[in-house]
Amino acid sequence: MILARLILGLLSLAPMTGYELKKHFDSSINHFWNADKAQIYRTLAQLVNDGHATVLTVRQANYPDRQVHHITERGRETLVQWLEADVTAHAPREPFLARVFFAAELERDGVVELIEARRRATQDLLDEYLSQREDIDMRAAADRRSFLMAATLDNGIRHAAAELEWLEAVSEHLP
Fold first, then answer.
1. Contact 94, 88 (CB under 8 A)
2. Average of per-residue pLDDT across 42-54
3. Which residues, including other chains, have CB under 8 Å from residue 42's CB and lie 6 or more apart?
4. What is the pLDDT of residue 21?
5. d(C-alpha 118, C-alpha 96), whole Å
6. Are 44 and 108 in contact (CB under 8 A)?
7. Angle at 54 (CA atoms; ends 52, 67), nearest 5 degrees
8. Which of 7, 13, 59, 71 is least enclosed by beta carbons within 10 angstroms?
9. Measuring CA to CA, how many Å separate 125 from each of 32, 60, 97, 120, 154?
10. Average pLDDT score, the chain
11. Average pLDDT in the 9-31 region?
């Protein structure tokens, strides 16, 4: 359900093909949600079937036809209902923490490597988010939409930085 709402949100910005949606996922919201191409296309088809989106075939010379998706009024209403619904805290699912929880089964060197591998991955993620932020200044955002988009990126940056700090503490105090 969340993926469908995210796609509706992106379509509310502009009509897009499935390929363009995947690019937007990877470049604008990957700090809080990701989806693979198959998930996006499957969800797009369901949105069209449910009347939340329409698809317009655009013919192209020397290229396959483009399938451009547009949000419908019904889709926009569904998006707004979701945005206005009660906000609840959720317990995150974090596979890495499950591995840490049971990592005492490993020798100390194995635990150290597990933590170090996550540190490297998290640092790479943080670097990616910081490179995205170079193009965005929250304080200078011209409108509410730009500000809120920048705020979600800032959240991703803060979470990655906090995880790096936590990983350092675990490494430092590991018996």
1. no
2. 97
3. none
4. 96
5. 8
6. no
7. 135
8. 59
9. 12, 37, 17, 9, 13
10. 92
11. 93
Q: Give the whole-angstrom CA distance, residue 175 versus residue 138.
A: 42
Per-residue pLDDT, 27:
86
Which tokens go with 145? 């939409």
Mean pLDDT value across residues 46-66: 94
- Residue by residue, DSSP assigns the chain as -HHHHHHHHHHHHS-B-HHHHHHHIIIIITTT----HHHHHHHHHHHHHTTSEEEEEE--TTSPPEEEEEE-HHHHHHHHHHHHSPP---PPP-HHHHHHHTGGGS-HHHHHHHHHHHHHHHHHHHHHHHHHHTT--GGG-SSHHHHHHHHHHHHHHHHHHHHHHHHHHHHHH--
pLDDT at 101 (0 to 100):
94
Q: How far is residue 39 CA from its own chain's centroid? A: 13
The pLDDT of residue 142 is 74
Contact indicator for 35, 5 with CB cutoff of 8 Å: no
Q: Which amino acid is at 16?
A: M
